């Protein structure tokens, strides 16, 4: 039984009810919410990396990135479907089979999302860059490209989400302080962190990464120093797309109903928020922002009720930007940091 | 006349002929589906109707969110118009289709477009309550009659709109009926009511919670298009209810039901008419086996002639509110056949209409509500939605 505390008489909601602080539920569900929040937050973080990388290099907010993610979701679904799985009951597979099938889906999703991102860059942004279009035009093009990618899916597959196919049931493996940790949570969190560490090392330790950082700092000078700017930009979109593809597989494992033509919109906004929260242009900031956002959303929902979920997330964003306008870790990709 | 309808549905109990769906003979408690009334209005009419070319419109979700709910209705409407036009060479009625995507922000623009198309003299729609609320006054100002086959929010008929007619029971009937079903047939003493943020979801949840009284032990709210429900699931799990009632649409209900099932929540899942669609069953996966539905829609199992024609034209079995869409379109078509050729004439026709349809008897009061309506429950068997019982 939970007791609802009516703490405040300050705010009246639309329906005339008082905002409720369900402290008991918050305390009871704290660890469950934390663990689920981290799991969802790592998906946000993977998608957020795509926003952050492109912003770092081009100072462009690539609003079509949410569609790059959705194409990965569809790729995952088609791999499952192509392997002979159908909507309905979850099959019981051996570990070997499961790893093989999920591996295939991961490769396909990453390839499709990465490919979409590169094609997007070629078709939508590169011609504008060649003509020296102002920044605002890029932004509008990004929104337009987002619609185009959505509508392609819509015309091809229709308005209904693809019917859920899943290979793995979400089952509790062990508990941490009474919060249950499921198999999908483990896969998502571990794989996401590995991918993010990989992306971070790639940008900070390799020759290609140095190129990315150079273009982010000063495109003209980087070009004079022999960096192929166009190739660096393509590479940046590719990495963002690959990570979004991986995120798409984890998302589809958690939410098999996810392959819908508009399904990336809210997740895209959240991932973008995560990127801004952590400091846009900052890789580690995207990771931190994603995890913080996922967890805080769940806390807010548990404390205030489901309708406050998004409000809590965005109020947090506003508060952090008031104190630190560049996000928690600040913008770093473009700053010299030798 | 009402007694005759009652007698018809009672009479149907004797004849147990499950011609509509073959695999449900195993269930014990299932009530027999009502027979099609012999005097149900037929869109074909006598085949001698004469009229100038005119149009009616379907407005509602065709490809937007929860599209399947709109498509079920649209195919019913299309079937009635096709049957009418085929039988009456002298009276061709064109069906115009408008996609509102089911959202309150898109509907007013689309509806403005409809009222500014002079050839359209009657509208079947809007299916959802939120969009109906947002756009109802536009229809009212234009004097364009709308018959809705599925918008159930009770307040819609309280706006003084002269053009609004509801072809089914509203949520002041469905809410208490759902409560009765949950506490009676499902024998639940602890119920979690989860609602979405739509006009429909919040209105129905309020009616249901009121009827459940202190058996509604937990409540929470989710948002349209939400896909991740871990916080709500955790809350429900700690409450350990007998039944979870989800007041909203299938698009959110499917992942929610699945995530509840994964978390080990054993409660039965009950959804209203907005959840009752094959899309829910296919998308919720294993969790759907545990699901029940309440719906002001009449099972089409015994409407053999209708079902066959529907399947031939759309390639699918009739869905939720397909027969209702067909019935309401038939009423508009009969008006056109009777010589109504403008909006005022057709509005007057619907207002004074008194006749039997496939699903029920249609005669509206001055608010646009029907006198007698029915609520049925449905359940999932072998991956298909089949009728369960009528709540009386």
UniProtKB/TrEMBL annotation, chain A:
Transmembrane segments: 41-61, 68-86, 98-124, 136-156, 176-203, 232-253, 259-280, 287-305, 311-330
Keyword annotations: Amino-acid transport, Cell inner membrane, Cell membrane, Membrane, Transmembrane, Transmembrane helix, Transport
Keyword Transport found: yes
Chief location: membrane
CDD domains named in the record: TM_PBP1_LivH_like
Listed InterPro entries: ABC_transp_permease (IPR001851), BCAA_transport_permease (IPR052157)
Membrane topology: Multi-pass membrane protein
Signal peptide: none
Localisation per UniProt entry: Cell membrane
Taxonomy, superkingdom: Bacteria
Family named by the database record: Belongs to the binding-protein-dependent transport system permease family. LivHM subfamily.
Name of the protein described by the UniProt record: Branched-chain amino acid ABC transporter permease
Species this protein is from: Amycolatopsis melonis
From TrEMBL, chain B:
Boundaries of every Leucine-binding protein domain copy: 55-383
Region of interest (Disordered), ranges: 19-45
Keywords associated with the record: Signal
Alphabetized InterPro entries for the sequence: Leu-bd, Peripla_BP_I
CDD domains, sorted: PBP1_ABC_LIVBP-like
Coiled coil regions in record: none
One protein family per Pfam: Peripla_BP_6
PANTHER family in UniProt: AMINO ACID BINDING PROTEIN, LEU/ILE/VAL-BINDING ABC TRANSPORTER SUBUNIT
Family named by the database record: Belongs to the leucine-binding protein family.
Protein name (record): Branched-chain amino acid ABC transporter substrate-binding protein
Species whose genome carries this gene: Amycolatopsis melonis
Organism placement in taxonomy: Bacteria, Bacillati, Actinomycetota, Actinomycetes, Pseudonocardiales
């Amino acid at each position: 039984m939970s007791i609802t505390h009516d703490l405040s008489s300050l705010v009246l909601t639309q329906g005339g009810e008082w905002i409720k602080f369900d402290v008991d539920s918050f305390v009871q569900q704290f660890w469950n919410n934390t663990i689920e929040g981290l799991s969802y937050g790592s998906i946000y973080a993977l998608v957020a990396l795509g926003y952050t990388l492109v912003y770092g290099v081009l100072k462009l907010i690539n609003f079509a990135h949410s569609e790059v993610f959705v194409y990965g979701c569809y790729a995952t679904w088609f791999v499952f479907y192509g392997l002979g799985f159908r909507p309905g009951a979850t099959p019981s597979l051996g570990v070997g089979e499961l790893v093989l099938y999920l591996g295939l889906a991961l490769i396909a999703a990453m390839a499709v999302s990465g490919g979409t991102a590169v094609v997007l860059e070629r078709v939508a942004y590169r011609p504008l860059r060649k003509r020296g279009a102002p920044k605002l035009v890029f932004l509008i093009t990004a929104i337009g490209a987002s619609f185009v990618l959505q509508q392609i899916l819509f015309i091809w597959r229709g308005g209904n989400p693809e019917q859920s196919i899943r290979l793995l049931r979400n089952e509790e493996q062990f508990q941490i302080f009474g919060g249950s940790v499921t198999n999908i949570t483990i896969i998502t969190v571990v794989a996401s962190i590995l991918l993010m560490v990989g992306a971070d090392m790639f940008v900070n330790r390799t020759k290609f990464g140095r190129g990315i950082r150079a273009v982010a700092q000063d495109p003209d000078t980087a070009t004079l120093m022999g960096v192929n700017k166009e190739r660096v930009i393509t590479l940046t979109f590719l990495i963002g797309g690959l990570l979004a593809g991986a995120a798409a597989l984890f998302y589809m494992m958690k939410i098999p109903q996810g392959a819908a033509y508009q399904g990336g919109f809210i997740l895209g906004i959240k991932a973008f928020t995560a990127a801004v929260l952590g400091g846009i242009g900052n890789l580690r900031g995207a990771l931190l922002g994603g995890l913080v956002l996922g967890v805080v959303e769940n806390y807010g929902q548990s404390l205030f009720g489901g309708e406050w979920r998004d409000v809590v997330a965005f109020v947090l964003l506003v508060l952090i930007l008031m104190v630190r306008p560049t996000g928690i870790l600040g913008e770093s990709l473009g700053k010299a940091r030798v | 006349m009402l007694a005759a309808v009652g007698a018809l549905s009672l009479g149907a109990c004797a004849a147990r002929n499950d011609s509509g769906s073959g695999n449900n003979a195993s269930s014990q408690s299932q009530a027999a589906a009502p027979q099609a009334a012999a005097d149900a209005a037929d869109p074909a009419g006598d085949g001698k109707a004469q009229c100038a070319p005119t149009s009616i419109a379907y407005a509602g979700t065709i490809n937007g969110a929860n599209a399947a709910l709109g498509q079920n209705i649209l195919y019913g409407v299309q079937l009635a118009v096709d049957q009418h036009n085929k039988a009456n060479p002298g009276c061709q009625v064109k069906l115009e289709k408008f996609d509102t995507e089911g959202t309150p922000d898109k509907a007013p623009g689309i509806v403005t477009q409809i009222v500014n198309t002079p050839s359209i003299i009657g509208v079947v729609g809007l299916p959802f309550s939120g969009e109906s609320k947002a756009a109802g006054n536009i229809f009212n100002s234009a004097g364009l009659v709308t018959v809705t086959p599925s918008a159930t929010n009770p307040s819609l008929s309280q706006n003084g709109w002269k053009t609004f007619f509801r072809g089914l029971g509203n949520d002041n009937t469905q809410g208490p009926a759902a409560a009765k079903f949950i506490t009676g047939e499902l024998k639940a003493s602890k119920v979690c009511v989860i609602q979405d943020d739509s006009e429909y979801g919040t209105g129905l949840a309020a009616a249901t919670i009121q009827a459940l009284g202190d058996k509604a032990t937990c409540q929470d709210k989710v948002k349209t298009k939400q896909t991740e429900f871990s916080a709500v699931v955790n809350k429900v799990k700690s409450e350990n209810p007998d039944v979870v009632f989800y007041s909203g649409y299938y698009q959110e209900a499917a992942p929610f039901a699945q995530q509840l099932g994964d978390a080990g929540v054993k409660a039965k899942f009950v959804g209203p008419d907005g959840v009752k669609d094959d899309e829910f069953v296919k998308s919720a996966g294993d969790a759907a086996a545990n699901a029940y539905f309440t719906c002001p829609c009449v099972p089409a199992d015994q409407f053999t002639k209708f079902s066959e024609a529907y399947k031939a034209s759309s390639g699918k079995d009739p869905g939720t509110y397909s027969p209702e869409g067909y019935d309401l379109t038939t009423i508009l078509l009969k008006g056109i056949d009777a010589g109504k050729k403008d909006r005022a004439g057709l509005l007057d026709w619907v207002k004074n209409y008194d006749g039997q349809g496939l699903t029920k008897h249609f005669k509206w009061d001055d608010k646009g509500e029907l006198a007698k309506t029915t609520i049925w429950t449905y359940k999932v068997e072998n991956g298909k939605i089949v009728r369960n019982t009528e709540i009386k």
